[in-house]
């Protein structure tokens, strides 16, 4: 399913604004998308500005792919989540876009989480927006509109994104070529299709799912192998906190399934059913295991050492 169809269903207001703007060739020089999970819609706007195959981005042409990959010549991208946006970065945009266009089309700068900018950066940005140059487009996202200068807001087309429902998300995920397990996991752990997208085609997702199965199997039937297998497989391939946190959240869903088996409820991992049927654990013990994993996941978010935390969890679980 192409993204514009998903956008039309999940964000109908944004979709209609974009469609009318591009059809009538009255495109604002600056957009400000407000809400969580604004990255895909923001990139969709950028692609629509340079895509020649349709009114809105086709998501299939070379130009659209280059925007997604951040290697389009006249496209500059910053994300305040990666680090505070500062004045030199705004000056870099001004300098680069004062030159002739490399691609011969629109020049676009996309800044996510713009509220994480210094006051100097905000003021420099305001000056750019006060004197817009034809052919240069700004796309901003933020989660907290109150932290964006009102004078910047007034110079943008501000669009409030709608929150996604889990039911709608499940319906969208079912249209993808993924298993029921994957649909369940992604719908449980994320709130929008945007967040799920990076995992749908990810090899790491499949591998982490396999590691969850092996962890449960070792935990209950091969306890002596648990630590060595986690160290030589999971932690050897996935040492970054993001993937380990994702693994721990997936592991909690698998342990929660043990309750669901006891009470004949739907499973997050239906493919694990034969494994679950062999496990006989008291509900109190399962709760303790889940609490330990959730605490480990929390400690990871406080910049604790991944290896030490995982070792500690496995000795205690």
TrEMBL record:
Alphabetized SUPFAM superfamilies for the sequence: P-loop containing nucleoside triphosphate hydrolases (SSF52540)
BP term (GO), one: DNA-templated DNA replication
Pfam families: DNA_pol3_delta2
Alphabetical list of PANTHER family matching this protein: DNA POLYMERASE III SUBUNIT DELTA, REPLICATION FACTOR C / DNA POLYMERASE III GAMMA-TAU SUBUNIT
Protein name as catalogued: DNA polymerase III subunit delta
